[in-house]
Amino acid sequence: MIKKALGVEGVSSTESPWIVKGDEVKTGAQIDMLIIRDDRVVNLCEMKFLSTEYEPKNEDELALRGRIATLQESLSFKQTIHLTLVTTLGLKHNAHSGLFQKVVTMSELFD
User: Fold this and answer.
1) Distance between CA atoms of residues 83 and 52, nearest Å
2) Which one has a higher pLDDT value, 94 or 6?
């Protein structure tokens, strides 16, 4: 259903969570779900189950930018990362919400 909600139903892809262990030198990262598409786009999906709209804060943006940077290190330079929010009620727009290229709500998933 998420591929349909993202509008990539006809594109082959693989989906999985993604974890990189950190160490003394490198920061680790945990990504809820990656959709690695054959059209060279990678959807980095951040999932939030909330009873209100998700309102990203400065520390959320910093953490997400860190995950994006960590992921970029393991991808081909030809691949593009789209940050995708999957959440119950949507995104509250503020100074940090522009980081997301796509927002998928529960109603879109279970339509």
Assistant:
1) 20
2) 94
Q: How far apart are CA 52 and CA 87, in angstroms?
A: 9
The whole-angstrom distance between residue 108's C-alpha and the CA centroid of its chain comes to: 16
Contacts of 34 by beta carbon, 8 Å cutoff, 6+ apart: 15, 16, 17, 18, 42, 43, 44, 45, 71
Which residues neighbour 35 within 8 Å (Cβ) at sequence distance 6 or greater? Answer: 2, 3, 6, 8, 13, 14, 15, 42, 43, 45, 84
Distance of CA 74 to the CA centre of its chain: 16
pTM assigned to the model: 0.86
Residue 20 has pLDDT above 70, yes or no: yes
Main-chain phi, psi angles of 68, to 5 degrees: -60, -45
Q: Which one, of 37, 35, 19, lies nearest residue 27 by Cα?
A: 19
For 70-110, the pLDDT digits (tens) are 999 989 889 999 999 999 999 999 999 999 999 999 888 78
